[in-house]
Amino acid sequence: MKPDRNSTPSLLDVKGLTRRFGGLVAVNDVSFSVKPGEIFTVIGPNGAGKSTMFKLIGAFIRPTSGDVVFEGKSLVGLAPHQAAARGVVRTFQETTIYREMTTMETVRTAFHLQCRATSLGAFFNTRQARADEAEANRAAEEILELLQLQHVRHEQAKNLPHGYLRALGIAMALAARPKLLMLDEPFAGMNPEETDAAVQMVRRIRDQGITVMLVEHDMHAVMRISDRIAVLNFGRKIAEGTPQEIQNDQNVIDAYLGQEDEELGI
Ligand SMILES: Nc1ncnc2c1ncn2[C@@H]1O[C@H](COP(=O)(O)OP(=O)(O)OP(=O)(O)O)[C@@H](O)[C@H]1O
């Protein structure tokens, strides 16, 4: 039997979070909790505040008021790399991938960035540096296997198709050993087969014990993959619940009416 959600301590607590841009309230008094091991998705019509919410959680921008609490401690005021060191890691954009490096080199480099080996240690070939090297190789192999990238391990990024580059951005994030992995529209621009594969990939990541938070527009994928969903509209949270609860929520249906495609998939 699954443990009662309410009795499990949260990994992330978003508390009364508000962010203004001049006169515009992009995120307005939003609260929710993410439990360890969940796949939690934030949805909402265009301009609802989803990206702003992600930036607030990753400490890329500061809230006007409210708090982001991770493992019981506030992330507000930290720099993004400090939030990442606590375990809140956002996937890397394809544009930040160094195109001359191979898949393996990219993941190993990302791993080294948070590894103990100093450049001086590596230069003198210390025992610590050699141990770190072996650990980087092992960790990189594990990540490539998890994301099914082994067969392109020696390909340079510039030769990889779009879908692989996106997976490589996720691989780099995994090298930072996240507790909470944040994925911004991971299924955007994918055909149904690619989406299927990406859904399986996100599930495998979660099965490694990593909690996953997504912002996503592809409602069919969202409804399949999410344990829980929060819905934003004009910066406010209008609903939160399981996919089934969200699909049947009249406020949510109303918010999506008039959208170009029947995004909710109902
Ligand atoms: N840096 C900024 N300065 C001013 N306004 C901003 C800024 N960032 C976002 N906004 C505004 O805040 C609101 C929420 O934007 P946000 O990008 O968070 O929405 P979203 O739900 O991610 O939208 P989409 O689905 O279209 O990506 C929008 O009205 C947007 O124009």
From TrEMBL:
Pfam families linked to this entry: ABC_tran, BCA_ABC_TP_C
CDD domains (alphabetical): ABC_Mj1267_LivG_branched (cd03219)
Keywords: ATP-binding, Nucleotide-binding, Transport
Domain ABC transporter: start-end pairs: 12-259
The organism's place on the tree of life at top rank: Bacteria
PROSITE patterns from the UniProt entry: ABC_TRANSPORTER_2
Molecular function GO terms recorded: ATP binding
Protein name: ABC transporter ATP-binding protein
Source species of the chain: Shinella pollutisoli
